[in-house]
Amino acid sequence: MSEKNKSLKERLAELDQILEWFDTADIDLDEAMQKFEQGTKLAEDIKNDIANLENKVEVIKHKID
Amino acid sequence: MDQTVLQVSDFLALTNQTLEYAYPSVLVEGEVASFKISKGKFVFFDLKDQSGLVNCFMMIYGLRQPFEDGMRVRVLAQPRVTDWGKFSLTVREVLPVGQGSIKRALQLLKQKLEKEGLFDERRKRVLPYLPERVGVVSSIESAGYADFIKILNQRWGGVSIFSLDVQVQGGVAVDQIIGAINYFNQSSDPPEAIAVLRGGGSAEDLSAFNDELLVRAIAASRVPIIVGVGHEIDTTLADLAADVRAATPSNAAQILFPDKNQFAREVDQKQKRLLDIVQNEIKRVRITLHHAVEKMNMDMELSLEKYYVQIKRAESLLKQLNPNLVLQRGYSLVRNKGSKIVKKVEDVSLGETIEITSSRAIITAGVVDVREK
After folding, report:
1. pLDDT tens digit string along B228-244?
2. Sign (positive or negative) of CA dihedral B58, B59, B62, B64
3. What is the 3-state secondary structure (H, E, C) of B88-144?
4. Model pTM?
5. Judging by beta carbons within 10 Å of its beta carbon (0-12, 13-18, 19+), is residue B249 exposed, middle or buried?
């Protein structure tokens, strides 16, 4: 799955996972730095999405009797 | 006069034909009495006023709301005579009349549905988090619908809205709203939630949202439903049956979607937490390292200390053994002609020149006498 296609919800889930890792795991500094970078990028992508995504409104042409 | 003679059954059939011709349908209003349901299918009651009474009959599926004795109702019916000569009204529709009756009918319906568990909290589902596909059932021209869309656009993005235009008041409203809910439920790709919306209006206009079939459709929907029927006074039965109740269409948009600014702030918080944790971790490692080095130093000092003690001991031992120190204590060193240190009788001979070294003098002397000690 390319980075661009990950949905906002997937990114949020990943970010939360990283935070959880920091709360519970025995922190290895190298891994910590990696996860920190990942988390920062995820947060930036999420904020970007929030600012730029648009809504689509479709009026369905269905006749109800 | 020439009169046709009729058999009884013929007379009854003729009378019914005449009635059908003259009164294909009538609207009669009166008070309900002796209301009863037989075999779960047949509804019998009397309609009366101060001086008259007429029997009424209908099938239970024609009954859209429960009734009870004493209520004023209006019936749409056809008059007929039964095979045993009884005059009665065959009722197609019944409507409560007057605020009192209407309120009472609503109360009865609410009790009935409540007993069935339609309004149970446990039945209610949670709306999906950050929904991406939402169905809307509303009057597209209405201000309520416009408000919903406006608030959505202010708050969030990336959402697909599928709107079905329906009447929200009047005779066809109930069927259309039910039809819309069914449409979304039966779709091959149903939305994650359905919002049923109506802007504020007088209490009468909300009658569709108290209709039994509509309320049942909301309760039966597999897709979670949020109802946003704006009004100040009453809670409709649709509100009670919905998974989530919103006060207005705008409120429905607020409930369904987060505010993007608030959300971005929360993401910022998460980022900051990450930073804090990492910084703390680095600090912690630094401190641990510092302590480790300190301990190493302390350990080293302790071993060095031991070493110093040993050295001091050796030194003092050496001091004691140092010949000069011995001489300082008053002893002398005697050397013979061959510079050999004299210890025993054999080391010197009479008359030999010896050298005596004391702490501060070197004396040359001759041996006068030598004896074994």
Report:
1. 987 766 789 999 999 99
2. positive
3. EEEEEEEEECHHHHHHHHHHHHHHHHHHHCCCCHHHCCCCCCCCCEEEEEECCCCHH
4. 0.68
5. buried
Which residues have C-beta within 8 Å of that of residue B92, sequence separation ≥ 6?
B25, B58, B62, B75, B76, B77, B78
Strand partners, B47: B32, B54
Residue from B128, B115, B110 nearest B243 by CA: B128
Chain A positions touching B179 (Cβ under 8 A) are: 64-65
Contact yes or no for B161 and A57 at CB 8 A: yes
pLDDT, residue B100, reads: 84
In chain B, % of residues over pLDDT 70: 98
Nearest to B152 among A36, A51, A55 (CB): A55
- Dihedral pair phi/psi, residue B86, rounded to 5°: -95, 130
Instruction: Give the ranges where chain B is alpha helix by DSSP (H).
Output: 8-22, 98-116, 143-155, 173-186, 212-220, 237-241, 249-256, 260-321, 323-328
* Cα–Cα dist A44/B270, whole Å: 11
Structure tokens at B314: 């050796």
> Residue A3 pLDDT > 50, yes or no?
no
Chain A residues touching B278 at Cβ < 8 A? 22, 32-33, 36
B96 — pLDDT class (breaks 50, 70, 90): confident
Task: Give dist(CA B227, CA B348) in Å, integer.
Answer: 132
* CA-based nearest residue to A10, from B275, B224, A18: A18
Residue of A21, A57, A31 lying closest to B135 (CA atoms): A57
Sheet architecture: strand order including B193-198: A56-59, B160-165, B133-138, B193-198, B225-229, B244-246
Is residue B147 within 8 Å of B246, Cβ to Cβ? no
Q: Order of strands, edge to edge, in the sheet holding B353-357?
A: B333-335, B353-357, B362-366
Chain B residues with at least one Cβ partner in A under 8 Å: 129-130, 132, 140, 149, 152-153, 156-166, 175-176, 179-180, 183, 260, 263-264, 267-268, 270-271, 273-275, 277-278, 281-282, 285
Alpha-carbon distance A64 to B166, whole Å? Answer: 8
More confident residue, B210 or A65: B210
Q: Rounded to whole angstroms, how far apart are CA atoms A48 and A50?
A: 5
CB contacts < 8 Å between A and B, how many? 92
H/E stretch holding A41: helix A29-52
